[in-house]
Amino acid sequence: MTGRIRRVGLLGGSFNPAHGGHRRISLFALQALGLDQVWWLVSPGNPLKPAAGMAPLAARMRSAMKQTRRAPITVTAIERELGTRYTVDTLRCLTRRYPRTQFVWLMGADNLAQFHRWKDWRAIAKMMPIAVIARPGYDVSATASPAMAWLGRYRMSAARISDRGKWSAPALVNLRFDPDTRSATALRRTDPDWAERMSVLIPRDQLTHHLIDSEPTSMHSAGQA
After folding, report:
1. Region at 203 (left for phi over 0; alpha for psi -120 to 50; beta for the rest)
2. N or C, which end of the chain is more exposed by having fewer CB within 10 Å?
3. What are residue 61's phi and psi, to 5 degrees?
4. Could you tell me how far CA 13 lies from the centroid of its own chain?
5. Is this prediction's pTM over 0.85?
6. Contact 74/37 with Cβ under 8 angstroms?
7. 141-194 pLDDT, tens per residue?
C-alpha cells in the first residue's frame, strides 16, 4: 500500500461483547465501499448507555479480537491514548495523525436515528463520508430523524464512494443487505460469564500496540456522542 492513500472504515461502539454481526457488516462495508481495512474503535465508555453491565475494556477488546481473526479488521482502543471525550474530537485526531488515510464512518441505522444528539454531528459529516447499515426495526426512525433531514441531500451510491477519484464529504451512503439479528444484549443474556473468560489475558491494542491493562472510568466513546 506504499505510495497511495489507504481507505479505512471506522466502526465505533462498546462491543459488549463483539459478535459475528459486527464482523459481517464490517466485511460487507469493506467490499461495497472498496476499503483497505476496517478499524473497530472499542470505546472506553458509552455516554448513551448505562454503565451497569458494561464489561471491562480488556474483555471487550479480547472479544473483538476473537471475532476479527483472519480478517482485514484492526481492533483498537485508541481513544484512551488520544484522551478524547467525543466522536468529533476522536475523528479530528485520527485525520491529523493519519494524513494519508481516507476514513469513512460506519454506523447502524439505530445510531443514525439519534445522530442529531451527538456533539457537532454536522462537523463529523463534513469530515468524512458516512455509510449507514440497515438494522431491523430502525429504518423508520432513522429515515424520520433530524440528521437524515439534513444528510439526505448528500446521498451517494456505494459505487461512487468505491471510486477512488470521487471521494468527498458530506456524503451519505445507505448499505443494505440481509438483516443480521444478532445482538450483544442477547449474547449477554445467554452467556453472562463471557467477560470473565475474556479477562484472563491482557490484550495488546492492534493499532497502538499498547497493552490494555487498565481503563479510565469517565471517558465518552467514539460512535456514541
Report:
1. beta
2. N
3. -65, -45
4. 5
5. yes
6. yes
7. 888 899 999 999 999 999 988 887 777 899 999 998 776 778 888 888 888 889
